[in-house]
Structure formats: C-alpha cells, structure tokens
Amino acid sequence: MDKRLVNRRVVESLIRAGAFDAINDHRASLLASVGMALESAEQASRSANQVSLFGDLTEAAQRPALIAAPRWDTKERLQNEKLALGFYLSGHLFNIYRDEVRRFTRTRVGELGSLSPGDYSGRTYWIAGVVMGVRLQNTASGRMGVITLADDSDSNEVIFFGEVFDKFRQKIKEDELLVLEVQLRARGGGRTVNGEYESAGEARASIRAVNALDLTEARNRFARGVRLTCNGASSGGRLRDLLTPYRSGRCPVSVVYVNRGAACEIDLGDAWRVNLHDDLIKSLSDWLSPENVRIVYNDAVTGDR
Question: What is the pLDDT of residues 126-176, one digit of tens each?
C-alpha cells in the first residue's frame, strides 16, 4: 500500500480502534510491532523484483514474529479506542467500576437534570462517573473548571468554581473515575426566595461540585471493612507482606477461613487497619482471586443529604 496514505500513524490508529482484531486481537503486541512490520514491508518492496528459487516460501520464512507484550486490560483497551476514535467503542470505562460505586452512590448522573427545582437548594448528592473532558473558563468572578462526567446513564457538565477547582484539580484527570459531592442550582427560568422556588418558565440545573474523591478515597470513606476468604493453602506470611505497606489506613480487615471441617471469620484488629489503595486490592485479588476479596459497604447506600 502507498505509505503516503497509510503511514505509521494510520496503522497505529487502526490497531487502537480494533480494526485488525479479526486477524489478531492482541492489540498491544500489534502496536509494539508496527515499526518492525513497516521495515519488513520496505525490505519486501525493495526485493519484489528479485527472482527467488523458493518464491513465496522464502518471503514467508523471513516474515518476523510479532513483538511480545502484555495484553491490555479493559481500561487500556478503551482508552486506546478513545485515543483513536474520540470515544469508547467496545464498552464504557465506567462499567469497570459500576458494580462497586453503585454500592455507595445512590444518584445517577442522568437523574440530576430531571430533579425538581425544589430539590436544588441546600441538598447535596453523591455521584460517580468517568471524566470525559475538562475545560477552563474565565468568568466575572474568576476562573472555573468545567468537566464532562459520564456514567452508564448519561453524561452531564459539573462546574468547579474558584477555590474548589484549585483544591481538587490534581484529581481531575480525563478517563479517570471521580466520586463527587454536588449541589444543584437553578439556572434560568425562575429563582429561589426564602427556600421556595418561584417558577418563571423552564429551569435547568447547574451542577456544582463541593467535594471530589478518587476511588481510593471513596473506598476509605464509605467502606466499613474488607473481607478476605482463604483456605489452608493460603500463607499467613504472604497476607502479612501484602497488608503491611497499607497499614496506615482506617479500614478494618477480616479473614474468612474455610477448610473441609469448619469455617470461621477472624477480625485482624485495629493494628491491621488498611488504606484501600487500588494496588492493595489488585495484589490481594491476584493472590486469592477477585471473588475472595470483598469490600464491604453499608447495605443502605449513604451519602445524600
């Protein structure tokens, strides 16, 4: 193919978007091999007019193997699709976190716009979503940040005013999960007087952030424990080594021990309270398997007030 039309950047974008999945779905390996493949194609093009005794057999024998690379996890795959296409194609990044965050956030992003203006004043809501875009905007009262937050219901803009934006700006990263405490304000169509909303047409909700947590902070705020299930094949020394770097936290740990004859649950005590960092959850899940690592939240979802 004409490399002026299908250059390295085009091939990389096609790989990121999954265009070669029917041939080979290992996108990380394909992407790592693009440079080598283009060089191989150049060499084949230069020798195209040379006669070979073995014909196509020689060319096939000289075709290089793909470069080995770890497969992308779901998050990496979706981020690369967005990099190539501008949107997630094979799923939504929020779905990675959905089952967990729905245990401590009641309100969906898509529900905020349909709430009654009477719910705007004073009340706060906890929502969770993936940051799809960030922009800065200058106003008469100063600079503010506007993010597009999306979950599995819809997307909406959330405003961070002045000091709030400066306080949380390090957490506002595109393609990352944010758990937000927000307030609603009426924007157009009426006004609030002495706590009562006076309608003068169609009102819209302005969503304003008052607090922002990343996933680790949200776990530490809302979780009431982490429960680990293991059996006689699990090493207590290994568990100690995994927990020790994270013992600065507030979350209690309990171990559910099961063998053929009995089962019991052991609380490790205050000295072994941990910080629920994502690296800890991943290392425990890799060791015990994900279904044996359970973060326990309150049965009744908390947060709204």
Answer: 999 999 999 998 877 778 899 999 998 889 999 999 889 889 999 999 999
Measure the CA–CA gap between 36 and 11, rounded to whole angstroms: 12
Tokens of 82: 């967005």
Displacement of CA 141 from its chain's centroid (Å): 33
3-class DSSP assignment, residue 155: strand
The answer to whether residues 101 and 180 touch, using CB atoms and an 8 Å cutoff, is no
- Other C-beta atoms closer than 10 Å to the C-beta of 190 total 15
Cα(218)–Cα(179) distance, integer angstroms: 7
Decide if 277 contacts 246 (C-beta within 8 A). Answer: yes
Task: Supply the pTM of this predicted model.
Answer: 0.76
Handedness of CA 279, 74, 180, 285 (dihedral sign): negative
Give yes or no for a contact between 149 and 155, defined as CB atoms under 8 angstroms apart.
Answer: yes
Dig out the tokens for 287 from the structure.
Answer: 């060791």
**What would the two tokens of residue 262 be?**
């009995």
> What gap in Å lies between CA 185 and CA 122, rounded to an integer?
9
Residue 237 and residue 158: Cα distance in Å, rounded?
46
User: Residue 155 and residue 174: Cα distance in Å, rounded?
Assistant: 14
Q: Which amino acid is at 43?
A: Q
Nearest to 250 by CA among 232, 225, 267, 231: 225
First-to-last alpha carbon distance for the chain, in angstroms, is 61
> How far is CA 17 from its chain centroid?
18
Whether residue 195 contacts residue 78, with contact meaning beta carbons closer than 8 Å, is answered with no
Could you give the CA distance from residue 24 to residue 107 in angstroms, rounded to a whole number? Answer: 40
